[in-house]
Amino acid sequence: MDFSLTDEDEAFRADIRDFLKRHHPGKAPRGADAVLQWQRDWAALLSDEGYAAPGWPKEFGGMELPLPQQLVYHEEMTLARVPGHPSANSFIVGPTLIKHGTPEQHDRFLRRLLRADDLWCQGWSEPDAGSDLPSLKTRAVRDGDDYVVTGQKIWTSASVNADWMFALVRTGTPESRQHGLTYLLIDMRSPGLTVRPITDMSGGSHFSEVFFDEVSVPVGNRIGEENGGWSIARTSIGHERSTAFIAQDIRYRRIVRELIELAQENGASKDPLVRQQLAQLEIEVRLLGLNGMRSLSTVLKGGEPGPESSISRLFHGQFEKRLHEVAVDVTGAYGLLDRKDPHSVQRGRWVWGMLRTRASTIGAGTAEIQRNTIGERVLGLPYEPGSATP
User: Fold this and answer.
1) Is 169 exposed, middle or buried (0-12, 13-18, 19+ CB in 10 A)?
2) Which of 55, 78, 178, 271 sits a CA distance of 20 to 30 A from 277?
3) What is the C-alpha to C-alpha distance for residues 218 and 145, in angstroms, rounded to an integer?
């Protein structure tokens, strides 16, 4: 991997800075609805001005940047504190559509996806099929030009505001496991589809359970072939666990720096143990970024993120938890206060983060599943009985 910057790369940095100076959206407004609209407006502007999706091909609305310039792009956007895309799932389903979708699907979904005209959620986990995804039971039966979908998904992130869901459904026999799954794009406004928000321990409703009561989905919304969804889903999983985290890795560099500044301000950095913990976080955030760049380099050379992306996902989830646990220790007794308490430190961001990151080792594949993938498909260890083989 060669990440050295040329004069051309530095010229691109100057271009990004000039664009941000002219178009910066300002500080986030108050209120969830206002923030969502602020994010959508920024995503639309980036797309319309040609500054969206740095790694995507230009024919699909991306910038098609070489790796060093992608890193410059994410660094400058992070330092400028502009909003991220309001639908992180869009950059999971987007690469899947680019690789496996039809020209009609490209035209129908990709531009609206980049502009945040449509927001997306992921429909994979079920009450009895979380870590063991190939055992999912949500059923899709072919009826002419439609599939009729019946079943339930759970822990569906961002589904309250989503316009579309990319989902795995069972079209084969119950015994077919991963060989009987199909990848569908489902309109969240479809008759028979119900979204029920779940309140988590932070007080928010970031997840939902979604019910399908004979929901009709056109066959034209299928990605790939019937019963071929498992291999297609692995494209989505790979991008979720690797390249989608590049911007987050850069953002966490800034967050670690802000935590160090907080410890210096309130005197916590005088404690040798705290200094050691902060130093360890600095080491880990750099490792996080380097591993993410390794995965991105593989993709840009024409490959897929592959099973190695599980290394990024596992490390990322563990890091998020450790970071916020140290942060709450740094805030001291104020770490007991709710984020809405007027005396909370920095509006309770660290306490809220600690509560939210309890789920970091569950979402996008549990830590146990990541370890299995690393052991079996990276290290070549024997497969766990009953697991999904390649």
Assistant:
1) buried
2) 78
3) 6
Sign of the four-CA dihedral 22, 27, 28, 31? negative
Give the whole-angstrom CA distance, residue 322 versus residue 329. Answer: 11
Phi-psi region of 378 (alpha: psi -120 to 50; beta: other; left: phi over 0): alpha
Residue-level pLDDT at 304? 60
Catalytic residue among 76, 240, 284, 304: 240
Residues 6+ apart with CB under 8 A from 130: 154, 155, 366
Burial 325-358, CB ≥16 within 10 A → b, else e = bbbbbbbeebbeeebeeeebbeebbbbbbbbbbe
CA 73 to chain centre: 18
Handedness of CA 369, 374, 376, 382 (dihedral sign): negative
- Cα–Cα distance between 335 and 324 in angstroms, integer? 11
* Helix-strand-coil split of the chain, %, nearest 5: 55, 15, 30
**Residue 10 bears catalytic tag:** no
Q: Which two tokens stand for residue 135?
A: 């055992």
Which contiguous run of DSSP H or E holds residue 122?
Answer: strand 120-123
